[in-house]
Amino acid sequence: MNAITSQVSIFECEQCELEVKSVDGEGICAKCNEDARIAIREHVIGQHTEYLAECIQIAKDEVIADIINGDVPKSVKSFSELHDYVDANTYGTICEDECRAKFETSDEWFAFGDEVFSAIDAWIKSGELKAELKAKQAK
Fold this sequence. Notes:
Blueprint: E1 9-12, E2 19-22, H1 30-47, H2 49-68, H3 79-82, H4 97-100, H5 106-125, H6 128-138
Antiparallel strand pairs: 1-2
């Protein structure tokens, strides 16, 4: 029986030259990776502020419609819980070609999607979803 073994090596981060332990011996350290993720997020938000607000509103409307249609229970407590009932990653037109085409890289597109989904999560957890749903059903 052959055992697969990985050897941990020490390498220099390609960006900050910090010594880091790694299995594959190359790449960037976790700090530089996080810094890059933050920079991409800030760039995406800065470049697409209006589109972000539009996609968040579309996603909210879609969640409310799914609750009214019975696809999602009104007791849903988080964005991640939506996945128990629907493919929540499609909310806000994130998976449509038109959305993807607005971003130069997949990292930018993922960062944009994360912003939309984080906003939906905060909206649900704050109780705003329940308030909007109640107001819509009262009409």
